[in-house]
């Protein structure tokens, strides 16, 4: 049998790339933020526009990446972005490289175990090994490239290709300063275990030079003498300089041991080597290459470094799995039942990894997992409404937005999370009141500094008042467009009516459940006559049951088919003296695991604003075999001192207004016209042509608001 006919592994690598990129694409379209990716996109856009690896870090200043990380590798792959300047280009390159990780691991296993079945079990187990998935599915960081680069470096050394080994070692060094550690350790391995001692010595010396060059040449050039180095902040418990940190670690060994043996740190190690049955300890000469970085992670004052949902363990993963292969080779030296024992262990490794991602929170990035985070991949009508805004903002405008939109607004010089922009008069603010409450969201000062430009699906776009100019569409088309710079791009908004929707509130204070136990009734405030549409956000949640096995929480799905029921009641007393003027059971498959906007057409209900109306949210149950089956939903509350909200804790038998005092269900009421604001962008001449076309097809739009001169400096 010719075990070299292995082209299928390349197909598997391509398939993994396609899966990873497609999941990231849906995540991007659903505006689910990834860790740090927006900062890298901004760096690349600035590089393409003359400011090499600069970004503003949510502040009023521009910073070089080299102030924190010396990562020349990013410039090596920059030409690809320069050819295709799209927010997802960097992710395309990222996954293309990451997906090759399985190739050298497969070939190494094939050489060592001399079995295609064994090699395939190694490769497939690695692809569902959750610490690997978290290095690149959670977000972007140049350090995550270490996994494929180090696997290739080790494999090419194994195949006696020393110059290729040297090249991949250099590429790994170019990621970040901490890559000096695994590359130096790998160089020592090459000196001790291979015949290419000169190449190994060169890589070891190159690693030491890289450390010196970064610490004493690069960082001082990008930091003031009085500034503490960024990397020193990761170990602030031990000092403020590299010397202080090293000294205190050496002089206090007991505290070091105490820190790395804390329960959470041991759990960190358990999740890294447990899925491979702790076999790497049987190949300590390989495992040791990746251990120093793990120890560094556990010593760090920055808790994220020893969390498996990040990328800080990327450079250790290759040696955990390479050591596993060598350990299996050694176990396979048993003469009786060699292949049976090895493949049984490999089957156990595959099954363990499958069960972990299938039934624990560690499987949130795997579509087949019970814990798969569906909300980050669902594209709803709200996401499409957000895209309408995002695709119409010229890159010259500075923008503040919720974290979910930072990746979409990153291709510009100035961008801010909404929680950070206070004090900086950015040009535009895109605000989502349904974003995570942890973002400390506040709407801009609409009385003095900002005016509302656009509203749709509970999204708000605000612009600085000193940039806003309002015209009748006719005046702009005939003469006013001439007053603008004909070579600049502008943003314009055309509203169909002066009577904008009213809102119960614009900031989420909490999210509450609606199910067979919890029901809600909200008194509606019809401030004006002729209400046309009532809208409110709701999301569905999954029912699950938890099972603890060997100390690990497993999550299993629980069937439920009850649907959300929305009713509008007319009457002073919604419990006794009322009539139902609207009732509908919402189809569960039309809702998402993230906010969806439910709309109720009020124009047909003959609403009398002088009467009292209530919105009631409860459950319509289904039964199976005499057992009631329910699902669960969530709705959003906002601060409102004058609201009348009642909540039931027993399925609607008793109601109380004390559960959430001075709070209201988030809802909006549109009056008269229900047509949306139309956003357009372009040069004055292009805006003129677009407005002319719009007036030919609709007479509902009379005015246009143009966001005028744009600031270059905040």
Spell out the key features of this protein.
single chain; 714 residues; alpha+beta; Jelly Rolls; seven-stranded antiparallel sheet; five-stranded mixed sheet; 19% strand; globular; transmembrane helix
Q: Could you explain how this protein is built, in words?
A:
This protein has 714 residues and is of the alpha+beta class. It folds into 3 domains: 101-372, no CATH class; 381-496 and 675-707, no CATH class; 503-671, Jelly Rolls, CATH 2.60.120. Helix content is 37%, strand content 19%. It is built from 20 helices and 27 strands. Strands 10, 11, 13, 18, 22, 24 and 25 form a 7-stranded antiparallel sheet that branches. The longest helix has 26 residues, at 197-222. The radius of gyration is 30 Å and the shape is globular. Residues 710-714 have low confidence and may be disordered. The chain crosses the membrane at residues 6-25, 90-110, 117-134, 140-157, 164-192, 198-219, 271-296, 308-328, 340-357. Pfam families: DUF2079. Keywords: Membrane, Transmembrane, Transmembrane helix.
């Amino acid at each position: 049998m010719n075990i070299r006919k292995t082209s299928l592994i390349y197909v598997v690598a391509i398939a993994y790339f396609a899966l990873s990129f497609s999941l990231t694409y849906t995540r991007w379209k659903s505006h689910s933020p990834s860790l740090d990716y927006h900062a890298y996109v901004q760096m690349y856009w600035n590089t393409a526009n003359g400011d090499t690896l600069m970004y503003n870090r949510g502040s009023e200043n521009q910073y070089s990446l080299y102030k924190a990380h010396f990562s020349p590798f990013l410039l090596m792959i920059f030409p690809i972005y320069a050819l295709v300047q799209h927010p997802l280009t960097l992710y395309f390159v990222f996954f293309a490289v990451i997906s090759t990780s399985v190739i050298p691991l497969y070939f190494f296993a094939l050489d060592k175990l001399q079995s295609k079945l064994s090699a395939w079990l190694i490769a497939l187990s690695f692809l569902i090994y959750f610490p690997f998935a978290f290095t690149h599915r959670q977000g972007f960081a140049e350090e995550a490239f270490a996994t494929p680069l180090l696997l290739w470096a080790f494999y090419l050394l194994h195949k006696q290709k020393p110059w290729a080994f040297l090249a991949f070692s250099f590429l790994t060094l170019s990621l970040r300063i901490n890559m000096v550690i695994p590359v130096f350790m790998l160089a020592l391995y090459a000196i001790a275990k291979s015949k290419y001692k000169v190449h190994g010595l060169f890589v070891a010396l190159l690693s030491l030079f890289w450390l010196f060059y970064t610490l004493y040449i690069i960082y001082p050039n990008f930091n003031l003498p009085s500034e503490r180095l960024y990397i020193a902040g990761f170990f602030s418990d031990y000092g403020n300089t590299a010397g202080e940190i090293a000294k205190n670690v050496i002089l206090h060994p007991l505290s070091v041991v105490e820190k790395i043996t804390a329960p959470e740190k041991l759990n960190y190690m358990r999740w890294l080597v447990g899925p491979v049955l702790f076999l790497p300890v049987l190949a300590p000469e390989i495992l040791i290459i990746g251990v120093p970085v793990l120890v560094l992670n556990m010593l760090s004052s920055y808790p994220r470094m020893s969390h498996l949902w990040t990328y800080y363990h990327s450079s250790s993963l290759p040696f955990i799995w390479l050591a596993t292969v060598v350990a299996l080779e050694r176990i396979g030296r048993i003469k009786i039942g060699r292949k049976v024992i090895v493949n049984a262990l490999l089957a156990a490794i595959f099954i363990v990894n499958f069960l972990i991602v299938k039934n624990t929170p560690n499987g949130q990035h795997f579509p087949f997992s019970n814990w798969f985070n569906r909300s980050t991949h669902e594209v709803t009508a709200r996401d499409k409404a957000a895209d309408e805004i995002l695709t119409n903002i010229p890159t010259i405008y500075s923008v503040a937005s919720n974290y979910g939109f930072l990746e979409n607004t990153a291709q510009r010089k100035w961008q801010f999370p909404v929680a950070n922009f206070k004090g900086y008069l950015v040009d535009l603010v895109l605000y989502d009141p349904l974003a995570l409450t942890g973002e400390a969201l506040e709407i801009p000062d609409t009385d003095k500094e900002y005016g509302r430009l656009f509203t749709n699906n509970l999204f708000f776009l605000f612009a600085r008042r000193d940039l806003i100019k309002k015209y009748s569409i006719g005046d702009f088309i005939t003469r006013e467009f001439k007053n603008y710079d004909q070579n600049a791009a502008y943003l314009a908004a055309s509203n169909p009516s002066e009577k904008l929707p009213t809102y119960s509130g614009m900031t989420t204070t909490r999210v509450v459940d609606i199910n067979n136990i919890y029901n809600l009734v909200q008194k509606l405030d019809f401030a004006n006559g002729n209400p046309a549409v009532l809208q409110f956000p709701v999301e569905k949640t999954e029912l699950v049951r938890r099972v603890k096995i060997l100390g690990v929480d497993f999550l299993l799905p629980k069937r439920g088919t009850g649907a959300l029921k929305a009713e509008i009641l007319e009457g002073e007393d919604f419990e006794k003296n009322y009539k139902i003027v609207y009732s509908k059971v919402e189809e569960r498959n039309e809702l998402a695991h993230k906010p969806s906007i439910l709309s109720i057409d009020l124009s047909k209900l003959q609403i009398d604003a002088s009467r009292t109306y209530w919105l009631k949210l409860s459950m319509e149950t289904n039964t199976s075999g005499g057992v009631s089956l329910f699902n669960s939903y969530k709705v959003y509350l906002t601060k409102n001192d004058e609201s009348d909200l009642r909540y039931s804790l027993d399925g609607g038998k008793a109601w109380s207004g004390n559960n959430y005092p001075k709070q209201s269900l988030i809802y909006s009421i549109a009056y008269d016209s229900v047509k949306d604001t139309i956003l357009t962008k372009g040069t004055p001449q292009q805006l003129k042509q677009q407005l002319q076309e719009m007036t030919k097809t609709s007479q509902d739009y009379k005015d246009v608001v143009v966001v005028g001169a744009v600031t270059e400096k905040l």
